[in-house]
Design a protein that fits this description.
heterodimer; A: mainly alpha; 6 helices; 67% helix; B: 9-stranded mixed beta sheet; 28% strand; elongated
Chain lengths: 144, 504
């Protein structure tokens, strides 16, 4: 039986970040999509570290994977500066809601593949410096 | 200016074993340095090792990446090294990518970006990797003066902010001349990776270092899981005075041979045991070690041709127990990697044990095996390296015995093929000799620098108890040629020549 613990841990962290941004958008009465907010925060931190082109490459790969799972995202693109274009205009709202978690999971999963969990978590914490990210499950892997 | 008025340049540790010694104590604080070399020679690993050794939350490290190895991949690979501490990332070490800036703007904008980050963070160390891409940008613009201005501005600013700086770049030696970057730099560390036949030899040279005396020349280094390890040509003994030898005589474990050597081997001597295959060089070396162990001295045997277990097993056939002292930590049989080895690495390995265990006796068995284990590039320097190795070990008061195989000649008595007899204080020569239709063994003490010794040529045998020294071989002439004749032939001939003295 495949061990889905690590994957679930990444998905949990992705959902945690999306929930954080959703709560902030709600409290500020803003209408910015939480997926766009998460990607933007990661973009600011990661592009300083790996360059704009580097972040755009990672996000493009994550988006391609997400589109393969959720075809209704076909109109969404990654701009050359690493920002998401068209995500907030996706008509299928339930699909967009699901897509956010998938996209961020793919992005975090790619980081884990490349630099490992501890460094990925460090980069995420740098993007949300004032937030206590629950990392226990992420580092230890959620039991499947 | 009196000595106390001079500014004291603090030296910061590199975190690289051996490198502080090469640099004359460490890296000069606030210096502006270049780490140069071809791709794959270890520049980034060296820089990482230095930053992980020095980064603190109070004085963090700023690591600027510019169109070289992407930071993500850099971290992916560098975290494999033991010195990599993930806890230091972000709290003590910050990576900043300047690739886009370099592509889209001029050098002034790059300088401004670096200055802005430095002023915000107050780093202790700043690294630009790869600086070569910044230089290429300037050269593409055709403005050499802009590059000079940029380098000077960068050096000035980073020194003002009390940062020690490293610019990493892929350079070849031909670029050393008339290069504004090298002119401004306080330190220039050049890493080499030479391929010689099937071997790779890594060497490091401090081409330039302002303000302190470094050890000149090329120093071997190796990259392992622990990172870089350098092997200074001085073997870490710079400034240390030679240990005064007590000059007592050490027994070699064979009473008759001790007597032939004037009472034993003077402590701290270098002894060469030369002879063809099968004459018992290793047996003699083992008896020398076993005698030291018996009297409570720690010892090292460096073997190249057989594994330690095999060496100990062979000793047991002569009734010598090397297993117990090994278990007790009194004997270290070092089997040195027979691949791309350098003499400096070997000496470092031996010296580490000598210092840790207060070793008094060292055997190198054999010099031929040692030479074969070296990469081709190091073999060409073998004699010079042996000179340094023997000098280093005897300086520490260690008595070193080396075995060397010689091709038997039946006209003369060669000592070794390395012309190293001048390095040795004492020489013992073993050889075969044909007498009465039998191949017998003889030995002679050729040289004892410490004083008088027997000039006798003695027969010996290797028995299950080791060396058994027989009587002086008399009645023969030309023993050292290996094909002697009886003395009486000469006596008879001399009788026929008027005026010739009869030999008795």
């Amino acid at each position: 039986m495949m061990n889905t613990g690590p994957l679930m841990a990444i998905q949990d962290l992705a959902r945690q970040l999306l929930a954080l941004e959703a709560a902030r958008a709600e409290s500020s009465d803003g209408h910015v999509d939480e997926t766009v907010c998460v990607c933007e925060k990661l973009r600011v931190t990661l592009s300083k570290f790996m360059g704009i082109a580097g972040f755009a490459s990672l996000l493009s790969w994550a988006l391609a994977r997400t589109k393969a799972q959720i075809p209704s995202l076909s109109g969404v693109k990654v701009r050359t500066d690493g920002t998401l274009e068209g995500f907030d205009r996706v008509q299928d709202k339930p699909a967009a809601g699901k897509a956010g978690a998938v996209l961020v999971s793919h992005l975090l999963g790619l980081l884990v593949t490349l630099v490992g969990k501890p460094l990925t978590l460090r980069l995420v914490r740098d993007a949300w410096p004032d937030t206590d990210i629950n990392s226990m499950d992420f580092l230890n892997g959620v039991k499947s | 200016m009196s000595r106390q008025d001079k500014v004291i340049i603090r030296k910061i540790p590199t975190g690289v074993p051996g490198l502080d010694e090469i640099l004359g104590g460490g890296l000069p604080e606030f210096s502006f340095n270049i780490i140069a070399g071809a791709p794959g020679c270890g520049k980034t690993t060296l820089a990482h090792q230095i930053i992980f050794a020095n980064a603190t939350p109070e004085r963090p490290v700023l690591y600027f990446t510019v169109l070289g190895e992407p930071a993500l991949k850099m971290l992916r690979y560098q975290q494999q090294f033991e010195f990599f501490d993930p806890d230091k990332l972000e709290t003590c070490i910050r990576f900043i990518n300047l690739s886009q800036l370099v592509l889209e703007n001029n050098l002034n904008a790059v300088l401004e970006a670096i200055v802005k980050e430095v002023e915000a963070v107050n780093p202790g160390i700043v690294v630009v990797d790869s600086f070569r891409t910044v230089v290429r940008k300037a050269k593409a613009g055709g403005d050499e003066m802009e590059l000079q201005g940029f380098v000077q501005g960068l050096a000035l600013h980073l020194t003002s902010w009390q940062a020690t700086t490293f610019l990493l770049g892929e350079y070849v030696e031909g670029e050393l001349r008339d290069n504004p970057v090298f002119t401004v730099a306080d330190g220039l560390f050049w890493l080499y990776q030479q391929v010689e036949r099937n071997s790779i030899v890594r060497k490091l040279q401090i081409v330039k270092l302002r303000g302190q005396a470094c050890v000149p020349g090329l120093h071997t280094f190796r990259i392992t899981q622990a990172g870089l390890q350098t092997f200074p040509r001085t073997f870490g003994l710079t400034g240390r005075t030679a240990k005064t030898s007590d000059r007592r005589r050490l027994s070699c474990g064979i009473v008759e041979l001790d007597a032939m050597m004037g009472g034993g081997i003077p402590a701290g001597d270098s002894v060469l045991v030369a002879g063809p295959s099968g004459t018992g060089k290793s047996v003699f070396a083992t008896q020398f070690i076993a005698e030291g162990l018996r009297t409570g001295e720690s010892a090292i045997v460096a073997v190249f041709e057989e594994r330690p277990q095999e060496y100990a097993q062979r000793a047991s056939t002569f009734g010598l127990d090397l297993e117990t002292p090994q278990r007790e930590g009194k004997l270290h049989i070092l089997y040195l990697r027979p691949l791309d080895l350098s003499v400096d690495e070997t000496v470092r390995e031996i010296l580490d044990v000598v210092e840790k265990e207060n070793v008094k006796r060292v055997v190198i068995d054999s010099l031929a095996g040692f030479e074969m284990a070296l990469s081709p590039g190091f073999r060409t320097d073998f004699r010079e390296s042996l000179y340094r190795m023997i000098g280093t070990l005897t300086r520490k008061g260690v008595t070193i015995l080396s075995t060397v195989e010689v091709t038997e000649s039946f006209t003369d008595l060669p000592i070794s093929g390395y012309s190293i007899s001048f390095l040795c204080d004492d020489i013992l020569r073993l050889r075969y000799v044909e007498i009465d239709g039998r191949l017998r063994k003889m030995l002679v003490v050729v040289k004892m620098r410490g004083g008088e010794h027997s000039k006798d040529i003695r027969e010996y045998e290797i028995t299950p108890k080791g060396f058994v020294i027989g009587d002086r071989l008399t009645g023969y002439r030309g023993l050292i040629t290996g094909v002697p004749g009886p003395w009486n032939t000469i006596v008879e001939k001399n009788k026929e020549i008027p005026g010739k003295t009869e030999i008795k």
